[in-house]
Amino acid sequence: MVGELERPLVSNDVDLAQDQSNDLTRNYDLEGECHLNAALLRPPRTQGLVHKQRLSSASSRLALGDSVVGDVSDPLDGILVGQTLKRRVVTEHLVELQKHGRPENQSQNLRFGTENDRPQESVPNTDAISDQRSCLSLQVVSGPSCGLHCSVLSTSTARLPLTLGRVPPSYLLLKDYEVSGKHAMITWNLNKLRWELVDMGSLNGTLLNSHPINHPDPGSRLWGDPVELASGDTITVGTTSNIYVHISSHNERLVPFGVGMTSDPMSLRRGGKKLPMEDVCYYHWPLPGIYQFGVFGICDGHGGVGAAKSASKILPEMVATILTDSVKRERVVSGQDASDVLRDAFSQTEASMNNYYEGCTATLLLVWADADENFFAQCANVGDSACFINMDGKQIKMTEDHKVTSCSERLRIEGIGEPLKDGETRLCGLNLARMLGDKFVKQQDSRFSSEPYISQVVHLKKSSGAFALLASDGLWDVVSFKKAVQLVVQTRERHPTETENLAEKIAEVMLDEARTQRTKDNTSIIFIDFDSISTVSSCKVRP
User: DSSP readout, 391-449?
Assistant: First the structure.
């Protein structure tokens, strides 16, 4: 089935593709100019997936408890944040809109897939603005410019507004003949502290999550209404150029270990057409307001990318919501067990998802720290996106395979009184027996489940060379745990003095190995190096 990224430029029914997201970010972010291919991954950031801010190991120490301490100051390009900046951004934006003939009564509060009646915020003071700095990262995930990536801070006035178009001086320059010279613009709304997208009167229009946002009369060349952007949104310009949006805030940057993430849709054969990308990888460190907890996850969609996108937003949000309860949080830390939190989060996520004909795997690694700076990890999963931790040279499997053919699933299904027939390898055409979403087939066959496997808790010993590797089945179809460990060891030996980018390098090595072995499925990889301290990188999607 065709995923959201392959939907046509203009839909006959704008209600067909509702964005089922919540507002928790899955933020990847890079800081700097546009990059192509290998240049996409510059050193780290954090996330929601991430800010690319370099910190020395001394300045990125985790202060366990309620806060993260570190040097996270950003250069403001010589601009002081305050009334002068606010007046410049807002005034110039309004002048630009009026110049292009925009109606005065246009809605400023449109947000597809979310409530439109959210309360309006008053103009913030200078201190509030400095605390709400945001980093926007854009990645072209399909089309002629696939792989192009750029990011900008809300305080970088020299780079704002950010223009998407086919000709210079567009900030995101798209080599797509279906894209107008100046196609769309993204601005930071200082009054509402949010990123907004507006179509600049393009000929072919602009879609946000498959909904048109251009002026109703495309021939008029009038601008559309500004629409709020959220992390995880997909912007479509032309029929094939899809741009993924990642947003993270100032206080979400510090990660106490190295992280590398990368993805590639792959193809069925060498030089062939790329497969539709249905994987989503993400992480959040720290969880909002819960500074000693973070999550890392991969969702591998089937039937489209919709369920994976929904789960990747809702699941971390549910974990964060549960852990805001101080009693439950303390129970996890003191008892060194988050099984109940993970189980409840998966259950609530499944209940919140409305994906009837799309489903996804979900593998989530929860990492937390206690007051003595000891780190712990526990994993939950449905499906076949696997995770293992290597510590002191020993591999600890953190997930369970939920294919219909696996022994554990056959025993589970037999236990509910409806055993599989000899030779039966699929249920309703699916090779997975546990997943999130797929509400329709779950109504047809009670043998499907969304109950997650919960791993043991692993105490991540210091100086043990510990690392975790999460990946979708595109990697595990062609690379064993043992081979993955060998690749990690070899890469570390080749770069003995590398610390800042090593996790990214290892993730790329894994992806290259999957490609060399000719995997025939989307491949997404998250590598976490618990022996290094740094900020982290985003989930880079290979062209």
Answer: ETTEEEE-----BTTSHHHHHHHHHTT-PPPTT---BTTBSBSB-EE-HHHHHH-TT-B
Residues 353 and 493 in one domain: yes
Tally the domains of the chain: 2
- My answer on whether 157 and 283 are in the same domain is no
Query: How many residues are there in the chain?
Result: 543
Give the side-chain half-sphere CA count within 13 A for 69. Answer: 7
Which residues of the chain fall below pLDDT 70?
A: 1-133, 249-254, 499-500, 532-543
Q: Give the separation between CA 226 and CA 107, rounded to whole angstroms.
A: 8
CB 156 within 8 A of CB 77: yes
Q: How far is residue 330's CA from residue 322's CA, in Å, rounded to a whole number?
A: 12
Q: Are 281 and 405 members of one domain?
A: yes
Among residues 217, 249, 281, the one where a domain terminates is 249
- Host H or E run for residue 141: strand 134-142
- pLDDT, residue 246, reads 83
Read off the pLDDT of residues 271-311 as tens digits, 9 standing for 90 and up: 788 899 999 999 988 887 787 899 999 999 999 999 999 99
> Which CATH number characterizes residue 194's domain?
2.60.200.20
Domain finish residue from 223, 249, 275: 249
Q: Rounded distance, CA 51 to CA 248, Å? A: 7
CA distance 349 to 399: 19
Q: Kindly state whether residues 232 and 283 are assigned to the same domain.
A: no
**Is residue 74 assigned to a domain?**
no
Report which of 409, 391, 392 is spatially closest to residue 400, judged by C-alpha positions. Answer: 409
* CA distance linking residue 154 with residue 416, whole number of Å: 54
Residue for token pair 């491949």: 523
Single-letter residue type at 47? Q
Based on the fold, state whether residues 312 and 281 are members of the same structural domain. Answer: yes
Instruction: Give residue 101's Cα distance to chain centre.
Output: 36
The kind and range of the H/E element at 136 are strand 134-142
Hey, is 181 helix, strand or coil? Answer: coil
Q: Do residues 294 and 335 both lie within one domain?
A: yes
Which residues on neighbouring strands pair with residue 531, listed in sequence order?
Answer: none
* β-strand partners of 247: 136
Return the biggest CA–CA distance within the chain.
Answer: 73
Asked whether residue 117 is domain-assigned, the answer is no
